[in-house]
Amino acid sequence: MSQHTRAEVAAMIDHTLLKPEATQAQVAALLAEAATLGVYSICVSPSMLPVQRTGEVKIATVIGFPSGAVKPEVKAAEARQAAADGADEIDMVINIANAIEHDFAAVEREVRLVREAAPNVLLKVILETAALDDAAIIGCCTACEKAGADYVKTSTGFHPAGGASEHAVAVMHRTVGGRLGVKASGGIRNATQAAAMIDAGATRLGLSASKDVLDGFADA
């Protein structure tokens, strides 16, 4: 982990609070903590928008979350509303059944619909990689790139199959690295795990335990 400094890792973090019972007071505390930690953004549920900004911290939200099993048109409407409510970034969940069935044209169509609904917002696409084989991960990454996504992301953190893995991140990085970002999210609780994801190719980290993770990295 010595090659990664605390500040470098902090600048990669989406400081996340997506528990359905989260309150506005907890979101305000999350934003204050994000400013203190120096992380890149906070990620909250769309019902929490708009958020009173603090400093340079970006605001991210989720759509089609966590199942992905809603109509693409509904996701597009969610994206349009999130952009209107001030979101800088959107993390959308694909229809996972399409990925499992290797229907990558369907994946591309829904990502493109969301992209067109919120053209000025950075778009990350959640694949739920723990539920997919490598061919599905590769196909989805390619479809996301064709549809105009900015990032591909491993997981919601809610699926019973699990969260991020070094293997999935490496497959994603090999497929789109250098053109799209790769976000690792789900089950990353300490600096060792975070460093492993970065070494595998992650360029963004979705964390709820951001302080615990950052405490494991040294200052420059």
TrEMBL record:
Any GO molecular function: deoxyribose-phosphate aldolase activity
Catalytic residues, chain numbering: 91 (proton donor/acceptor), 153 (schiff-base intermediate with acetaldehyde), 183 (proton donor/acceptor)
CDD domains attached to this UniProt entry: DeoC
Reactions listed under catalytic activity: 2-deoxy-D-ribose 5-phosphate = D-glyceraldehyde 3-phosphate + acetaldehyde
Top EC group: lyase
SUPFAM superfamilies: Aldolase
A matching Pfam family: DeoC
Superkingdom of the organism of origin: Bacteria
GO CC field: cytoplasm
TM annotation in the entry: none
SMART domains: DeoC
Family: Belongs to the DeoC/FbaB aldolase family. DeoC type 1 subfamily.
Name of the protein: Deoxyribose-phosphate aldolase
